[in-house]
Amino acid sequence: MSTLIEAIQARKSIRSFASKLVPRETIERIIDAATYAPTNCNQQLWHFIAVDDQSLKERIVNEAAGSTALARAPAVIFVTYDGWNYKEALQGASLAVGHMLLAAPEYGVVASPLNSYGSDSAIKRILGIPKTEVICCAVTLGFPDERALGAPPVPRRPVGEVLHFNTFTKKRGLPYAYNPDRWTLENLRHYQRYYCRKTFLGKEMDIMSSFERNLVKRALGSAESPLLDVFSYDGAYLREFPDKPIIALDLTKETSEYTEAAVALNVPHDSHRVTYAVYDENAQMITDASFRTAVFNYKFERLPTALATRTLQQIHAALPTDGALIIIARKSNLLLWFFFRVIKMFFGNDMRRTGIYNFFGPYRPLRLSKTLRVLRTAGFTDIHWSGYFPLPPFYEQIYQMFRQYLKSEGSSYLHRTPFRDPMSRILGWCMKVQGFMRVGRLGSVVVIVCKK
């Protein structure tokens, strides 16, 4: 029994694979184990479509808008079940998937379930799956590479948090609202601790345009070092920092590990100049390490007012007399306000339904007047700001997400390969025309520079 429990606890999902192919004999053994799962009325009406042809996997990514992880995996198993009864189909197929996940490590292979496999109808067409079958999920198979082998175990929720005896005991959960002020610091930590392990360590998770990236590079070009990147999380913007020492600060140990992996993966030649720290809200200063410039890169608008105020006070206490604080954030303008109003109208207030900027937690474009007031309260007096992009660069990403949502039949929102069509070209042209001209309060992105 202990061996079984150890195997269950040791199992983990991976998204990065060695180049070694999975032998078909190994696939057959894993599926054989799957067929020993319990099933509805012993019908065993499951099927397993193993795809190890690279061209087929790429067709699924391109034609069905499936996750690019499908093309990276040496083999993918689509698990289906006779769809005469939808509930039974999901139950029977899911039990088989569980057996697959536990059997695979016996052969040195890692099996990972994937729900963003793309459009059901397109996959059925590509793989010749009958319309009467229900696709439960895709399961990637592969041998882990060095990065996957070195990844720390994912944190697990305590049993006391998820177990209920006799009746469901309502426990205080996360708000999952767009409004940061409905979140507490502990809410954010709780959310990030688990969500930061949704994929392989170091994968860029934020949604941004090239213009928003370049604005970071422009704003920080002459910043004095060392620089403090406040709440880096996925480290997506560290590559835009000048070639100077950086302290990457995160809310939890888990997110700090993610940032460190992102640096090693995306800017390995710069890893020597980045050090890492975890935020302590009870400390007088935001970090023990000295710095001359503190930076919020599209993070300030994600913070509850209480946390934003506290971090500003700690930054002010730690900054030298001639030090600077730079906030780069999306601010509410008419077009951005209209977009979020429409989103909430159609999808409700649960941020998980759209996947828009939800990797960090809540998201709401900041209100400039309120932000300036909070900065002054924290002790900053020398404050200057500039607005950019009257047409939000964010609209380019929204259009891509909309196209992905439609093409994948609601399976996913994000696709790393952009769609190219007349509308995407029009949006791209508009972004180039507006460039980096300063437009004051008409802007959808603001750069605020403060000194003590």
UniProtKB/TrEMBL annotation:
Name of the protein: Nitroreductase domain-containing protein
Tagged with keyword DNA damage: no
Keyword field: Flavoprotein, FMN, Oxidoreductase
Coiled-coil positions: none
GO-annotated molecular function: oxidoreductase activity
PANTHER family for this protein: NAD(P)H NITROREDUCTASE YDGI-RELATED, NITROREDUCTASE
Similarity comment: Belongs to the nitroreductase family.
Cofactor (UniProt): FMN
Entry annotated with the keyword Aminoacyl-tRNA synthetase: no
Organism: Candidatus Kaiserbacteria bacterium RIFCSPLOWO2_01_FULL_51_21
